[in-house]
Amino acid sequence: MRGATVTVSLLLASGALAFILAFIAGLSRVSENKAVRVLTMIYVEFFRGTSLLVQLFWIFFVLPQLFDIRLDPFTAGVVTLGLNYAAYASEIVRGAILAVPDGQTEAAIALNMSKFQRMRYIILPQALRTMLPGFGNISIELLKGTSLVSLITLQDMMYLAQNLRAADYSQSLQVFGILLILYFVLALPLIVLSRYLERRASRGVASA
Amino acid sequence: MEIFNWSYAAEVFPTIFRAMFVTLGITLASFAVALVLGLILTLLRRSPVKIIAYLTYGFIEFVRGTPVLVQLFFVYFAWPLVPVIGFEMSAMTAGISTLGIHYSTYLSEIYRSGIESVDQGQWEASRALNFSKAKTWTKIILPQAVPPVIPMLGNYLIVLFKETPLLMAISVNEMLMTARNLGSQVFSFVEVYTIVGLLFLLLSYPSSLFVGYMERRMNTRYMRKAKVQKMKKEDVIS
Amino acid sequence: MTGKPIVQFKNVKKSFGDLEVLKGFDLDIMPGEKVSIIGPSGSGKTTIIRMLMTLEKPTGGEIIVDGENLWHMEVNGKLVEANEKHLRKIRGNIGMVFQHFNLFPHMTIMRNCTEAPVQVLGLSKKEAEQRAVQMLKKVGLADKVNNYPFQLSGGQKQRVAIARALVMQPKVMLFDEVTSALDPELVGEVLQVIKDLAEQGDMSMILITHEMDFAMEISDRVAFFADGLLMEEGPPQELFNNPKSDRLKSFLQRFSRV
């Protein structure tokens, strides 16, 4: 199944985009600047409020017509998946930052650290631990989300499976059975990883 | 060609709006399936028979680990070909069952967290009062486990709602499918897809605000965050 | 102890919403002076030092640190609200030890003590480590440099927190009920460390405490706050043996006769 390569590269590209954006958006959500906060919130709520498939269609079919921006299916897929899952992941980033006890910020202020130093050396390293299990789950969701790009004709695993089926209807069971297992095999490392991270997080670091 | 044709948008709006109710119907039906099946999965996972518990766990992880779209095709196209237990379904039934099964695995996790948050002492008290196992579940544990997780269930109702457009892949006439059919008549998708997007936003954003509100209320009621905040305030002014 | 005060509170007020916690008080701290602040819960004691540490913003009055206004700065002859840069400049004079330690859980004891000197003061890693070891010796924990906070007892954590603040060499050190979160048997070791510091140091100290014997022993001066006001202040002997106000009398009674 050649489609697996497409699926995996789609996963990696949109995953990278999503996590970078998630950090930017997550930090913006806790910014002191109200305009930044509100703008990010609109972005996040917009992408969380509408359906992924609708966004995909909008970016692939409507953008060219409206603004003459033509994206090939792969780019459209990466952009949509990246923007969509970044919106969800940014909530994880934000939640994790807010979950770091106020005392940590206060101690850092008492040591006269600047805002940047506080975030970089004290808050983020601690928040990162809390974020990881959430990131693991998001990446599973992202892998599943990649299957949607078959609907904008990108030839990923899903798309090629449909072609195979179209060639011979009696093979449906084998084709989709194998496809399910393939996706699960791809997801398995992510599942194992995020369950491990979840267990580690729930054990927690004893508070200082 | 005009960039956004308002009169065309107004013309197609009623059709898309009607399709919205199909979408809502699918959402509610599959959520009902998920609610019931999710509870069954939760209970099976706690079964004292190890093999049942493990099989259930495996099923949950498998369903959660694979895309809904693939499952949808499997249920609609492949299931009828499964020997003995396979049977054919309408696209609508296949869609509702797939979404229902998929999200039941998520809901079972939520039920589980609710059950685990019930104090161990409640089980012991039920035993001390000689409740039967069924009575313990229905009268003592679940009434305490479910209310606190209602907001989280609500969140998944919204997630499920946003997944319904997938059903267009097996030609169910929900909103997105209707929009595509309309759009392909005139080869313009700007209006139809924008309307669908806005309708989704219009329905899901207020719902998620409502769920957030419920969540805060539940937290106060079940004395978690509220207690912490109160303590903190006292700390500051002492 | 003569000369200019290192810290001056001038008619400082603080409200949280409708709740007026501090109704305006004056208090001067001289260089090297040890001042204990006592009073019932809810009298705004903690708020006083949190404002000095810039963790809370006063709603009225002025705080002067080493001759400079803390919450305001002069721009073209006019007093305006202090910006972060100004706050950081003045804040460098002040250190604080918290009730709940607030050690950084993701760093070793050594890094807890060296992170700020390296990042804020710009010391080299080596210099910072030398200083840290010196201070950790002072609090008797030089052997724990490679441990993480969760491996220490409460008393040990608090001693590390003291060392961490000392490494920054503040002119004024604030102690916010540093023993209230400790198990009774661990209180002694922390108080001993503070006592040693008080005896050897020319550093000013402001202590919020419920340990009356301790306050009596180490303070040059004690200030009693109640109902958001500075009710009485003076040398500890005088205040404890000869309280003037009824408020202080009843407060002390409750403490000594338990």
UniProtKB/TrEMBL annotation, chain C:
Record carries keyword Flavoprotein: no
Record GO cellular component, one term: plasma membrane
Record domain ABC transporter: where: 7-252
InterPro entries to which the protein is assigned, alphabetical: AAA+_ATPase (IPR003593), ABC_ATPase_HisP-typ (IPR030679), ABC_transporter-like_ATP-bd (IPR003439), ABC_transporter-like_CS (IPR017871), Ectoine_EhuA (IPR014343), MetN_ABC_transporter-like (IPR050086), P-loop_NTPase (IPR027417)
Keywords assigned: Amino-acid transport, ATP-binding, Cell membrane, Membrane, Nucleotide-binding, Transport
GO molecular function: ABC-type amino acid transporter activity; ATP binding; ATP hydrolysis activity
Membrane topology: Peripheral membrane protein
Coiled coil: none
PANTHER family reported in the protein's UniProt record: AMINO ACID IMPORT ATP-BINDING PROTEIN, GLUTAMATE_ASPARTATE IMPORT ATP-BINDING PROTEIN GLTL
Sequence similarity: Belongs to the ABC transporter superfamily.
Protein name (database record): Ectoine/hydroxyectoine ABC transporter ATP-binding protein EhuA
The gene coding this protein: ehuA
